[in-house]
Design brief:
By secondary structure, chain A is mainly beta. Helix content of chain A is about 0%, strand content about 45%. The termini of chain A are far apart. In chain B, strands 2, 4, 5, 6, 9, 10 and 11 form a seven-stranded mixed sheet that branches. Chain B has a four-stranded antiparallel sheet with strand order 1-3-8-7, with no helix packed on it. The chains are: A mainly beta, B mainly beta.
């Protein structure tokens, strides 16, 4: 499984757009990039998944360049409730094991 | 649709005891995975069951075991508890047909404290 690297922590003010970048240099052709969000003492929650270019849903956008060696999770106009840990994962079809890294702890400041 | 449920939510045990945790997946989901989360090691995969068979296993000692029933409900057991087993144990369910890129739905977890 490809290893992912993302910043340990980020701070942002309420109302700003937040971009969290993840590096996955060894991503395989059939792998997808998936982001999960976790609040303290809760299980992770799926946010978004993509394979290439751009994916958008009601919560976030995911930008993936052509070489797919990195990806950027974009959270528009964050609020205090977006304070959480965000995990970037590389997911394939051959395994049912999710490999979580350290994640990025996002703190939203009022 | 009801989400993934885990029981109990909190548990206190002493060293040497054993513990059984339960997980009920989302209706229709046949894959159940278990994870351990600690401040030091983060989220680590324990094992995954599909149709009552263990299909994937993480790097944990044999004290950690699990099983899945015909209704897809799953239990995990930890024997001879150690202080280091104190953790949040998370269960996740998915359809089980498209690998790890399937969305996995996590339960609220069971917080285990070993004294």
């Amino acid at each position: 499984l490809a290893k992912t690297t993302q910043p340990i922590s980020m701070d942002s003010y309420e109302g700003q757009e937040v971009n969290i970048t993840c590096s996955h240099n060894n991503i395989a052709t059939n792998d997808y990039i998936t982001w999960y969000q976790q609040f303290p003492s809760q299980g992770p929650r799926f946010i978004i998944q993509g394979y290439k270019t751009k994916v958008t849903n009601e919560v976030a956008s995911l930008f993936i360049p052509a070489d797919r060696k990195s990806s950027t999770l974009s959270l528009p106009r964050v609020s205090l409730s977006d304070t959480a840990v965000y995990y970037c994962l590389v997911s394939g079809a051959g395994s049912y094991q999710l490999t979580f890294g350290k994640g990025t702890k996002l703190s939203v400041i009022p | 649709k009801a989400g993934v449920t885990q029981t109990p939510r909190y548990l206190i045990k002493t060293r040497g005891q054993q513990v059984t945790l339960s997980c009920s997946p989302i209706s229709g989901h046949r894959s159940v995975s278990w994870y351990q989360q600690t401040p030091g090691q983060g989220l680590q995969f324990l094992f995954e069951y599909f149709s009552e068979t263990q299909r994937n296993k993480g790097n944990f000692p044999g004290r950690f075991s699990g099983r899945q029933f015909s209704n897809s409900r799953s239990e995990m057991n930890v024997s001879t508890l150690e202080l280091g087993d104190s953790a949040l144990y998370l269960c996740a369910s998915s359809l089980g047909t498209s690998g790890s890129r399937e969305t996995q739905y996590f339960g609220p977890g069971t917080r285990l404290l070993v004294l």
